[in-house]
Amino acid sequence: MTKNMIFERLVETVSAVDDGVDTSVLRLDETPFQAYGLNSLSQLRVGVRLAEVCGVPFEDSDSLLAMSPLGLVTLVERRLAGAA
Fold it and tell me: Which pTM does this prediction carry?
């Protein structure tokens, strides 16, 4: 699964978790999730759900430590590579 594919799933997940976030502005960069309007609870839910969708092991704290779309996508990408 490529970084862009994971990002597409991230955007879908953000939309499913918090429909108040304009997902058209999400970028695969270091912009903090909070800048997009996600609070820490929503960020946690996004991380856990994305991990489930991608089939990777995940701790709740992982999604909070990732802090940005790029951070979370990179973490999932690494976990997928480690599982291969």
Answer: 0.91
